[in-house]
Automatic annotation (TrEMBL):
One Pfam family, short name: DUF2142
Record's protein name: Glycosyltransferase RgtA/B/C/D-like domain-containing protein
UniProt keyword Glycosyltransferase, yes or no: yes
InterPro entries reported for this sequence: DUF2142_membrane, LipidA_mod_glycosyltrf_83
The organism's place on the tree of life at top rank: Bacteria
Organism: Candidatus Chisholmbacteria bacterium RIFCSPLOWO2_01_FULL_49_14
Its membrane topology: Multi-pass membrane protein
Gene Ontology process terms (BP): lipopolysaccharide biosynthetic process
Alphabetized GO MF terms: pentosyltransferase activity
Residues passing through the membrane, by range: 141-164, 176-198, 244-261, 273-291, 338-367, 379-398, 418-437, 449-470, 490-514
Amino acid sequence: MESKEKSLIILLLLTTLFKGIVWAAFVPIWHAPDEQAHFAQVQYYAENRKGLSGDDLSQEVFESERLLGTLRDSQGNNLFTYHPQYNIEYTDSSIGKYERQLQSIPLSARTVYIKKEAAGYPPLFYILSALGYTTAQPFDLFVRLSFTRMISVFLAVATVWASFLLSRSIFPKRTLLSIATASLVSFQPMFTFVTAGVNNDNLLNLLTTVLLWLLVDSLRKGMTATRNLAMFITLALGFYTKQLIYPFIPLPLLVVIYDYLKKKKGRILYKNIFFIALILAVAVILLMRLLNSGYLPGWPMVNPQSPMVDLSLSTYLKQKLPVLYSETLPWYWGVFKWLGVVLPLTVLRVIKIVLAVSLFGLVHYFLTRVWRKKFTTTDWQLMLLIFSSLWFGFWLLLWDYMLVRSIGFSHGIQGRYFFPNISAHMTLVVFGLWQLLKKYQRIIVKASVLAGALLNFIALKTVLVSYYSVSPISTLLKQASQYKPWFFKGGGLIVVFVIYLTFLINFLYSLIAFHEENKQKNSR
């Protein structure tokens, strides 16, 4: 990696870091997706040094939810859910109405449990996030939550780095294309929102991005014992993070088959026999579990007593597929304030147009390849990303179908559920635009990154307007400071925002300069 390329990616990672800190500083407590449930599990692990058992929502978190309107009913709704106009009562200072009361809750309230609320997922993310919690353990709830959020922000930075490596493996001679892919992942509004809060999706998204990078890298460079081990470890960590790792289990086998067919040497299979056996063993165990009990570990259980056990798959798909376009797609790009606020309609329309143009570019590219009967390694890498995205989408639909049959209603397929493939999505979007508009490829790279940064600012403004009075600035700072730690009050908010802007401007300037230098060099 050249020094200018290295400087550019470092600037992007620093921009991602401080962007995440800005969002974590402004998003109110318990307003990141399902944050209270994930934090409850982190707190339980950190305070008890053991796994969940019995009730798991502490009195401290319960009181904060009750006072701040985020306590959910049996349907998972609270005062904010689907009510974008609702807000808590703000004071005319940087101290919230109940802030002192919540800060004075005794230490014993951290280990007195009211009910079951914790997410209940495998422990890896929560053990990792407990590092942030325990670092701030002597302090109040707001400090501990902010430190715990920082773990997710760091995971976001790592995911952007892995996205760059993935794209670089596909386009080894197209640095700007790889930078654009990583930038779109970083600036994606919903990705930024989720990673600004406590959510185990953030670790899963990192692991699946790393796995996809290892897979496409193996397609280009071949399978090795080191890559096989790295894939197996990544999958194993995924098992200890979230059950949505299941769809990724068979993907390494596709790479082995490709490697064998490409080289047509039996020793390819022999070299990877242990790795193949491990993957097949896991797949067989899960399949037997599914056949014997009707469900996978951590997935919805359906039995004859289930409310909608007779729901047919065709009926479900007729109801659900239109929703994927009308609801899931907009939510993929951003849904905030407990599902009550989305991006402006004009912005969503522009996004859909860009996606349509990119899709046309991809279809045109692959039809050309089929017509010429010529496929490069890059083509197979892109097809693997397409397959991974479609295959994962099928599993999400299957999971939701089983859930509806199990409990009688759907929690909805939120756009963020597709983020395990976000690096694949952004790679395909950029490449589709890149191929369709070949005369303006460098402009496409610059424009896509600038558009991504602008989209992130629009999303941040959308979030701020939904919670706070943004004018005058003094009122915004007062309201945004409430129920926050001392370092995210008033001047602290200004400092982190200015640092973010500084890195962002430097990154965009360096990107444009890098672009122009390459253009001049290539023109000679």
